[in-house]
Amino acid sequence: MKKYTKVFVVGAGMVGSAVAERIANDSGIPVTVLDKRAHIGGNCWSEICPVTGIEYHKYGSHIFHTSDAVVYEYISKFMSLNSYRHTVYTTYQGRVYSMPINLDTINTYYGVNLGSEEARKFIAGEIDRDTIADPQNLEDKAVSLIGRPLYEAFIKGYTQKQWECPPRELPAYIITRLPVRYSYNNRYFSDTYEGVPVEGYAHFFHSLLKNYRISLCLNTNFSLSDEIEDDTLIVFTGPIDEYFSHRLGRLEWRTLDFEYDILDTQDYQGTAVMNYSSIIIQSGRQFRLPSFVENTPVTLVLATPPIIRSILKKIRRYTKPTESLPLHNKAWCLGGGSAATSILIWMMQLKLL
Ligand SMILES: Cc1cc2nc3c(=O)[nH]c(=O)nc-3n(C[C@H](O)[C@H](O)[C@H](O)COP(=O)(O)OP(=O)(O)OC[C@H]3O[C@@H](n4cnc5c(N)ncnc54)[C@H](O)[C@@H]3O)c2cc1C
Q1: Contact 16 CB / ligand 1 (< 6 Å)
Q2: Where do the DSSP E strands lie in 218-304?
Q3: pTM to 2 decimal places
C-alpha cells in the first residue's frame, strides 16, 4: 500500500464498502468510493417505502449469513442482526413443499411416511429407475442425483425459468449435487450466524462508510479508460466483463424489474419465500421478509410486473387493494445465480402511521 496515496473504490456495495472501510481505518489513506447508482449498498440496499413507511430491500431480500466468526465480529461493529432464519417453500401443482428437498418434501410429494433411512433407500430406488451412467446434460445429471419424479416436480420448470432454456440443453457440470436432506431440517442456510439488520441495510452501509477519510461520489460511472494517476489504487467491484472492457466478451447478466404493491392483508403467504416450480406459472420466487414490526395489518409485495399482476389478481379476490406505488420504484437486479433470475415477491407487514 505504501506506493499509493489515494484509493478509488468502484462500487459501494458490500465488497466496496467493506474494502473502503478497512483501507480508510487501517491505512489512513483517503478513499473515494464511486458508484453509478444514486445510493450506496449495491444490491443489498434497503430503503423506506414512501407510502407505507416499511423498510424494504430494493433489489430483492438479502439475508446476511456467515459461519465465519471474524466476519460476524466485524459486521457486528456496524449492525445487529435480528433472529430471522431463512426458510423457503415451493408451490407445485397447487401444493406447498419444503425446499431444499427434505424428508417433509419427500413424504408430502409421494404421500408416504418414511423415516430417514427408509427415505434414503426409497430415493436410491427412484434414481435406479433411470439408468444414466454418464449424464451429458443438466436434466440427466439431476435425474441421476434425485430421480425423475422429484426432478420433474421441483427442478425442471424452475431451472428452465432461471436459464431460459430447457435443462436438456444445459451442460451437466452446472450442478454437482442437489441437496436432499433426510431430516425435517428446513433452514435454507446452515450458517452459524444469520439474520437481517435490525436497523436496515441503509443504516449498516452508512455506518461502514462513516469516516472522514472516505468521500462518496454517487451517480458516477467509472470507466477503466479514465486516466488514473500512478499513485492511485483502483479497487473495482463491478462486473468482471466490464473490468476487461468487454475485450473477453460479455457475460449474460440478467436484469429484473420489480414492482411494488400494497395489500390489505396481514400476512399473504405465511412465509418469507415461496417458489413457483411449475413452468406453467410464470414466476420464480417470492419473498416475504420477517417483519420488523409485529401484528401489522397490511402487506407490501414486491414482484416482477407480470407476476405481480397475476398474483395480485388472485389475492384481490379475497382482499381489497390499497394504493399502488409509483413506477419510480421499479428496480433492477444485477448478478448471477438463482437469486438474480428469480421472481421476487417480498411482503412485509405494514407499520401504519
Ligand atoms: C435478488 C438477489 C438476492 C440475493 N440474496 C442474497 C442473500 O440473501 N444473502 C447473500 O449473502 N447474498 C445475496 N445475494 C448476493 C448479494 O447481492 C451479493 O453477493 C452482494 O450484493 C455482492 O456485493 P458486491 O459489492 O460484490 O456487488 P453489488 O452489490 O453488485 O455492488 C456493486 C456496485 O458497483 C457499482 N458499479 C458497478 N460498475 C460500476 C462502474 N463502472 N462505475 C461505478 N459504479 C459501478 C454498482 O452500481 C453497484 O452498486 C443476492 C443477490 C441478488 C441479486
Answers
A1: yes
A2: 232-236, 259-263, 273-276, 285-287, 299-303
A3: 0.78
